[in-house]
From TrEMBL, chain A:
GO terms for molecular function: transmembrane transporter activity. This is Branched-chain amino acid transport system permease protein. One of its GO terms (cellular component) is plasma membrane. It is found in: Cell membrane. GO terms for biological process: amino acid transport. It comes from the Bacteria. Keywords: Amino-acid transport, Cell membrane, Membrane, Transmembrane, Transmembrane helix, Transport. It is a multi-pass membrane protein. The chain crosses the membrane at residues 12-31, 43-69, 76-94, 100-123, 135-157, 190-210, 238-261, 273-300, 307-327. Belongs to the binding-protein-dependent transport system permease family. LivHM subfamily.
Automatic annotation (TrEMBL), chain B:
The keyword Zinc does not apply. The lineage of its organism: Bacteria, Pseudomonadati, Pseudomonadota, Alphaproteobacteria, Hyphomicrobiales. Keywords: Cell membrane, Membrane, Transmembrane, Transmembrane helix. GO terms for molecular function: branched-chain amino acid transmembrane transporter activity. Signal peptide: none annotated. Pfam families: BPD_transp_2 (PF02653). Its main location: membrane. This is Amino acid/amide ABC transporter membrane protein 2, HAAT family. It is found in: Cell membrane. The chain crosses the membrane at residues 31-52, 58-76, 83-104, 110-131, 138-155, 187-205, 236-257, 263-282, 289-307, 319-339. One of its GO terms (cellular component) is plasma membrane. It is a multi-pass membrane protein.
Length: 336, 360
């Protein structure tokens, strides 16, 4: 951090000012002039929270994507299909058993299994041929999309939120002051906060596992140079299978999350594939912190954009991507 | 310098095994002449449905896939936004020309609207290309896919220019010299002429100094840079040319369907173009047209075929996906590669070092 400040004092100053302004916007009671200029604070806070929680969901999808890419150089364009598959599995389990938590576990295991099969049957046979692997994942995503359309139809599904998570809670953030002088606090759906907290926990756990354990060390070594890693006697195929399973399983979990606070339907696979593409392009391919930062930026941009410039929300996302590509083509937090 | 280029080309056996490098390849090939004659007299053979729905559509999709083939085969850049460029050009024809949505269309005559659309679409594609060449290989796929998807969502949301998800309908088609150029037979010949033009342009460029330099950039960018070539400029120029080809296809497409909507530029359709090019084979310009024919035939007749087999006719995309997977698995060079391998196995004496083993 201090190195960054030393090297780019101007950028550091700009980001500090931006963060300070953001914090002030979130915590302070807005003066009337500001409310007239850009609307109610409640709307703004809701957009910010929606953006952050959406960022959590994007992070879950994109972290698996970036992990698989980082280690195996495999752009898994079937990642969106894994997301949707996980969502459908979660829906089936939660309607059958009524247990929301169980649906996460089953969705994780089943999508991880699909990932293992993909790695063993398909990708291991064309190792090192990036482009061919990518083509195969495109073909797979078409096949999966059609199979899921066959099995589940074109309806919208929404996974039932469990009772203990239904309803809003009050957050200690003042949105306005009533004329009586009594502060009004922000009310926000509990389930989204819980899911966001869970994705933060998963992210931190992944970071710890990658940076503090032996398995993580092997994976990081594989990202840097898998040939040398294989030469040191590590069973690289086993590592590949495990990482693919983890990445796919994360997509499955994300599917259940997405099915809970949005909905599942054909076409969502492409939407989330696009989201994870943009997130990893912005954040940096193969970097977990990059995926987190990218997911946060894209989630916030999407939600704030859809509140303040509704027609061009998608263009904002795209402009961010263009900007990053123009300034730092390797992504914000990538090393190379 | 040119020696180095020729050496590069000589490594690619498919083109030059039997003939010197810089002649037209098909001139001595009777099969090519037969195909050309059949294409020319097609209106005598085929009815209106086959002429437009099968052959004209094949040629239009073939032109789009050809632009991808040019980028992927000669430049090593797999761009998924070729359909987006075509769609952009189609939208521009509808916006500048005459259409049923009078509040949007400017009502220019076609001979003004079409050049405008071509110019804008080429500029759009070149800009996208300039963005994409900042990265390499599989990253290019991701970025161009993201551009394509962004354009799709943008057309869905923007009502001022792109008229949201309803799109622009009843686009006027050209009508001059007393001929309705959208009538079946004239339109077929227009499409055929454009397709032939694009095909020979790509064929010519692949042998011109620019095309050779591009292939050099594909095979070894660092060496080309060391030789003094501007690698990125060559790549962007390739994008510009491919964008122009795709834009031509877009104009034909909007005349064919007389309407354009976000559905025509969806992500699935972008990927279809890639499928067409890969199934046909991305090492030679004829590949995309073969792929397009297979794709259109499948799309048109798979439903009847599946129903006749007692299966669900809606599973046509499954069939396409599985076919695509099979091609990618067993032949990195599409149908052309399979055909060449089959011929090789029939003529083991012919000395062809690893013919058509690809860069796909």
């Amino acid at each position: 951090m201090s190195r960054f400040v030393e090297r780019h004092p101007a950028w550091a100053l700009i980001s500090i000012i931006a963060i300070a302004v953001g914090l002030w916007l979130v915590f302070a009671v807005w003066p009337p002039g500001l409310e007239e200029a850009i609307g109610r604070k409640r709307v703004f806070l809701n957009a910010v929270f929606n953006g952050i929680t959406l960022g959590g969901l994007y992070f879950l999808v994109a972290s698996g994507f970036t992990l698989i890419f980082g280690l195996m150089r495999n752009v898994n364009l079937a990642h969106g299909s894994l997301y949707l598959f996980g969502g459908y599995v979660g829906y089936a389990i939660s309607t059958a058993t009524g247990s929301w938590l169980l649906s996460f576990i089953v969705a994780f295991i089943l999508t991880a299994l699909v990932g293992v099969l993909l790695q063993l049957i398909v990708f291991r046979r064309m190792e090192g041929q990036d482009l061919r692997q990518t083509m195969v994942t495109i073909g797979l995503s078409i096949v999966f999309a059609d199979l899921m359309l066959w099995a589940c139809g074109g309806d919208f599904y929404q996974i039932q939120t469990p009772n203990w998570l239904i309803g809003p809670i009050e957050l200690p953030l003042v949105t306005a002051i009533k004329s009586s002088g009594e502060p009004v606090y922000l009310r926000y759906p509990l389930v989204r906060l819980v899911i966001f907290a869970a994705s933060v926990v998963i992210g931190v756990a992944m970071w710890l596992a990658l940076n503090r354990t032996r398995a993580g060390m092997i994976i990081r070594a594989g990202v840097d140079d898998r040939d040398i890693l294989a030469a040191t006697g590590v069973r690289i195929q086993l590592v590949f299978v495990a990482v693919f399973a983890l990445g796919a399983g994360l997509a499955g979990i994300a599917g259940v999350v997405g099915g809970t606070f949005q909905s599942l339907s054909p076409g969502e696979d492409i939407r989330f594939l696009l989201a994870s593409l943009v997130v990893v392009i912005v954040g940096g391919m193969g970097s977990i912190p990059g995926a987190a930062l990218g997911a946060l930026i894209i989630g916030l941009a999407e939600q704030l954009g859809s509140v303040y410039i509704p027609t061009y929300a998608i263009v904002v996302t795209f402009l961010i991507m263009v900007l990053v590509l123009a300034i730092r083509p390797q992504g914000l937090l990538a090393r190379r | 310098m040119s020696l180095a280029h020729d050496a590069r080309v000589a490594v690619r056996p498919a083109d030059v095994a039997q003939r010197p490098a810089r002649t037209w390849p098909e001139i001595n090939n009777p099969a090519a002449w037969i195909v050309a004659v059949i294409l020319l007299i097609m209106p005598l053979i085929a009815s209106g449905f086959f002429l437009i729905e099968i052959f004209a559509t094949t040629l239009i999709l073939g032109i789009m896939a050809l632009s991808l083939m040019f980028l992927a085969g000669y430049g090593g850049m797999v761009s998924l936004m070729q359909l987006t460029i075509a769609g952009f050009s189609a939208y521009m024809v509808a916006v500048f020309g005459v259409s049923g949505n009078a509040n949007i269309s400017l009502g220019w005559p076609w001979w003004l609207a079409v050049p405008m659309a071509l110019a804008l679409a080429t500029a759009f594609g070149t800009l996208g290309g300039a963005l994409a060449v900042r990265t390499e290989g599989i990253y290019t796929i991701m970025i161009t896919l993201a551009i394509g998807a962004a354009f799709y969502y943008f057309t869905n949301q923007n009502w001022a220019i792109f008229n949201g998800h309803t799109g622009i309908n009843t686009v006027a088609t050209p009508h001059f010299w007393g001929v309705n150029w959208r009538a079946d037979i004239p339109f077929y010949y227009v499409v055929l002429a454009v397709a032939a033009l694009c095909y020979f342009a790509v064929e010519y460029l692949s042998r011109a100094p620019f095309g050779l330099a591009l292939q050099g950039v594909r095979d070894n960018p660092r060496r080309m840079a060391a030789l003094g070539f501007n690698v990125n400029a060559h790549r962007v120029a390739a994008y510009a040319f491919a964008s122009f080809v795709a834009a031509l296809a877009g104009v034909l497409q909007v005349w064919n369907y007389r309407q354009i909507s976000p559905g025509s530029v969806s992500v699935g359709a972008c990927i279809d173009v890639l499928i067409i090019a890969v199934v046909g084979g991305i090492t030679r310009p004829i590949g995309p047209f073969i792929g397009a024919l297979i794709f259109v035939l499948l799309r048109t007749f798979a439903l009847d075929f599946l129903v006749r087999l007692g299966l669900d006719g809606n599973r046509f995309r499954l069939l396409i996906g599985l076919g695509f997977l099979a091609i990618v698995f067993w032949s990195s060079d599409g149908v052309i590669g399979l055909w060449q391998r089959w011929r090789q196995s029939r003529r083991p004496a012919a000395n062809r070092p690893g013919g058509g083993r690809g860069h796909g």
